[in-house]
Amino acid sequence: MSLLTYEEAKRKIFEREEIADFVGERSNELIKLAEKTLEVTFSGSYLDFIKTFGAGNFGSQEIFGIINGDFKNSSVPDAIWYTLSERKDNLPKNLVVIHEFGNGQVFCLDFNELNDDREPKVVAFMPALELKYQALEVVASGFGDFLLNVVNEEIFAGNYP
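The chain above was modelled as a monomer; its predicted structure follows.
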């Protein structure tokens, strides 16, 4: 389901270019460098997202991805930089941050929890909370479902046609 919902989200983003601000296509070499840095392998809808959009905003919503190869001196919406920063504190290595909620909560791809398409599920994580108190709540069965939800909420909230 995640791949189908991703295609729908992608279509809606392209239809509303005026509120989409993404860095654009990322090369296979840059993606491989990011994967090596984080010790994960991107797949399915998230891989297509970073290949197609890189990282950026849809309306007021930032969707984290890959900006460039400088993962140490970057900022939001760079998922690699953000994830490495959070790993210095208490973010487990199986999580990659893809969205920030604004209340301190982040949404992550969980590479220990794969869906039927072998894509990571999206979970909620509270960086300020000790790991022993974390309950990783699954918020989407995959990145495609998550992205479509973010896109639809932004369209509805902004009253975009």
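The first strand starts at residue 20 and ends at 22.
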